[in-house]
Design goal:
219 residues, alpha+beta, 7-stranded antiparallel sheet
């Protein structure tokens, strides 16, 4: 298990990369986890271990293999909900406490709807410096694409839900109209039936009255 006392391999920073995301921290952190599902055929990630450090911090140890290196490297990734940050430290062996790289995704202190990403390399990349710059840009674009697709999916689900609710409300309203019309028709039929019974009873009464009077006179 990695030590809690993490130190850079040297104090001097050999390379510093930065990017400002126009998305809030929650979106960036979610995309950060989802990106492992989109790894290309040149990289392979395995989660070596996970643990809860305290009530605000959760740690993932990632084992990464790629075609650029004959040996795997390890990343200790710490999610800190209190600080609204994701920190990553890269080690050459799993149990090492001296890191060669570190990065941090953190909510912008000036704008909560933005996230700042910083990447520090403490080991000179040499001829791979340009490649590291391209990988940085590729990583940023990957996260932004994931976030945009996630937003599009949420918007489509919301639109679909709204249409279903609208259709449901329409069916309910049409049903209410049909019920109301049915009630009116039933009421009219009842009134017609009452009128028919009343007129029939009156006619029968009128027809029976003269006969009764005639019979009375004959008596």
């Amino acid at each position: 298990m990695m030590s809690q006392n993490l130190l850079p391999i040297q104090q001097a920073v050999e390379m510093h990369l930065q990017h400002h995301f126009n998305f809030d921290f929650a979106d960036v952190a979610k995309a950060f986890l989802l990106k492992y599902n989109l790894e290309n055929k040149f990289c392979f990630t395995t989660i070596a271990s996970t643990r809860q450090l305290d009530e605000d911090r959760f740690e993932i140890v990632r084992r990464m293999e790629n075609v650029m290196s004959s040996r795997p490297v390890y990343e200790r990734i710490i999610f800190n909900r209190k600080m609204m940050a994701v920190q990553g430290f890269t080690f050459e062996t799993e149990n090492q406490n001296v890191y060669t790289e570190c990065y941090c995704y953190k909510q912008d202190d000036k704008d909560s709807q933005k996230t700042i990403y910083n990447m520090f390399l403490y080991k000179n990349p040499g001829l791979k410096k340009m490649l590291r710059f391209k990988l940085h840009n590729w990583g940023v674009q990957t996260l932004e694409n994931i976030i945009k697709k996630d937003h599009d999916l949420i918007a489509k689900l919301k639109d679909s839900k709204d249409k279903m609710i609208e259709k449901k409300d329409k069916i309910i309203k049409e049903g209410q109209v049909i019920i109301k019309e049915g009630q009116v028709i039933i009421k009219e039929r009842i009134n017609d039936l009452k009128t028919f019974k009343s007129s029939t009873f009156s006619s029968a009464k009128e027809e029976s009255t003269p006969s009764t009077m005639k019979d009375s006179k004959s008596l």
